[in-house]
Amino acid sequence: MFNHVNIDIPEIKTLNIDGKRYYVTPDGDKYPSITTVLSILSRQGIMEWRKRVGAEVANKISTKASRRGTNVHTMCEDLLNNELDIKKFLPIDVEMFKTIEPIIVEKINNIFAQEVTLYSHYLGVAGRVDCIAEWDGRLSVIDFKTSTKPKKKEWISNYFQQTAAYAVMFEERTKIPVDQLVVLIAVDNNSPQIFIEKRDEHIKECIHTIHKFRQENNL
Q1: Angle at 193 between CA 159 and CA 65, to 5 degrees
Q2: How far apart are CA 22 and CA 127, in angstroms?
Q3: Among 34, 12, 11, which residue's Cα sits nearest to residue 23?
Q4: Does residue 198 contact residue 181 with C-beta atoms inside 8 Å?
Q5: At 29, phi and psi to the nearest 5?
Q6: How far apart (Å, rounded) are the C-alpha atoms in residues 54 and 37?
Q7: Which long-range contacts (CB under 8 A, 24 or more apart) does 7-16 make?
Q8: What is the reported pTM?
Q9: Contact predicate 115/81, CB 8 Å
Q10: Block mean pLDDT (10 aa), the chain, length 219
């Protein structure tokens, strides 16, 4: 059974502006989703990939990956909430989840936040964090990902920027510092990957990306 620490983080509303997700803070500020902001880092590669494989194939692959990612993520959430019912999910997705389940059970406990909305006036962004909990006893922002193949660290700067932003948002909202980032990736037909990083090694690059997004969107 996972222990949950009672931290009150009020939910905030979302809205869509020109196809981009924004969050509305209690003060009335409209901040873009950190996921939307970081999408500018991969858009060129995605466009080139779609052109290379064709729209039909790209849509099929994207739909399958999105469904798998959602289901594995939901199983992680249900597990941490002590309410996992594995029979609700497709066997192929369960198989992928099972590769990371023992790691979650061994490494994670004392959950401070899970699937809660956060925002930062300092960064001017908001988002919904996967999990903030102790990883091997150290408070961390923990993100669950799925992939068709193993990742190299240099490929996933956006993952580290995202989790670094959540760390800043969480500290701003709760006054509880979080300096460790954990990205746990379930990989098709491969062992899972674990990347453990420091917030301060990625937050400057995150701020640079936010500034670029704001310039492009005249914010």
Answers
A1: 65
A2: 9
A3: 12
A4: yes
A5: -70, 145
A6: 26
A7: 7/112, 7/113, 7/174, 7/176, 9/113, 9/116, 9/117, 9/118, 9/173, 9/174, 11/116, 11/117, 12/117, 12/119, 12/126, 14/117
A8: 0.91
A9: no
A10: 94 92 95 94 57 63 74 96 95 96 98 97 97 98 95 94 98 97 95 97 97 90
Which tokens is 190 given?
A: 């491969």
For residue 143, the one-letter residue type is D
156: which 2 tokens? 């996933």
* 137's tokens: 């006893």
Instruction: Say if residues 210 and 37 touch (Cβ distance below 8 Å).
Output: yes
